Amino acid sequence: MGKASRCLTYLLLLVPPLVVSLYLLASFPPPLGPLPVPSYPGLESLPPDSRARQIYSEDWVEGGEGAYVDLPMGRTRYWLVGPENGRKIVLIHGLSVPSLIWQPLIPPLIASGHRVLLYDLYGRGYSAAPVGAAYDSQLYVTQLALLLQHLGWERTRLAGVSMGGGIAAAFVAAFPKLVEREVVLVASAGLLEASDLPRTAKVMSSPLVQTLTSNPLIYAYLRHLASRPESPSSPSSPSNGIDTPLRDLVRLQSAHLPGFNRAVSSSLRAGPVMGMRWAFESPEWEGRRVLVVHGTADHTVPSSHAARIGALIEGAGRRNASSSGVDSSANEEVRVLPPSFLPPFLPFSKFTIKNAVQQAQQRPFQAPKSKTKTKPKPNLTTSNDRVRVTLVADAGHALTWTHAREVGEGVCGFLAGR
């Protein structure tokens, strides 16, 4: 065996254990230490005239009041708007776009008499990114609970979009006494599988890649790439209904906030985008009214997840009622728009949970190829209205932004008891 062959053999023997060791070290960070933990700053650290702050300014909530609160795991930015004596509701954003994603829904919520609380999750927007933290449901649930304590809110309605839906579900399970009867889940994540994630997301969210990209030289290069203007027609960045300002905001956060990429990657690994079945099955859903809204053209979280989430929540209520000796036969309805009859918006049709799940398993929901005025025939005869699943035709993952009128009307009608 030649010298080159022996070197190659030794290299092949040494590299795999080294890679595994680095991966394990990155997967199990050291203890956080004393509180408050060190953290990376948010968008307030950028110049006021920066592109990110032009898109998403600190006072973006028109007519509202904004402030910071220092919590044990990091500084949190929040905004309050609406009548002070109005019904309280918290809007929880998702994985990468901060609270700005809710902007179009604020006016109808205020008009319907709500006091609205918005805040940036750790590692996004103007909130700090705790160093070394696992961005999991425990971190996000604790952040919201402490924020509510700071504001003196004893009970509130909840609405979550995308990953925010998973956070809302975890909050219901963890702090049921802080949540009023109504909960809204928009394009909710929580039931995704690893196979659902794009290959790029899997690679970039791995601890090893995140450790390598923390190198100053590599991070500087990635920052340079992320700072470059994105071509609107770039095939590598499908919009899925997200318009340019929101895409730019995600890109600029990635480029200029040191904690953003770690927060997103950690959330993809351990956060409430996957593995949240336990939260949707919690017995704490019993007695609540739940609206699940999803777009038929959502390529990030397939619309079939809406029926699955509705089924889990409804099933949790039935199981809890059965264990309490209560007849749950009246709690078998979820409202779903079947794919062949999707109108521009929301005349609800009644279908059983069983039928909704069967539809989800057979094929994903599709937008109609042609408009039709034919009304769907009801398939069940129950007046129970506890869980409602609604699909919005042709809407993508950012439907709170792209289909604000439809979503706003549906959410406000639901909250009003219609």
From TrEMBL:
GO CC annotations on file: membrane
GO MF terms listed in the record are:
hydrolase activity
Signal peptide feature range: 1-21
Q: Give every AB hydrolase-1 domain span.
A: 89-313
**Which keywords belong to this entry?**
Hydrolase, Signal
Coiled-coil segments, which residues? none
What are the boundaries of the region Disordered? 359-384
What Gene3D superfamilies would the database entry show?
alpha/beta hydrolase (3.40.50.1820)
Give the protein name, as stated in the record: Alpha/Beta hydrolase protein
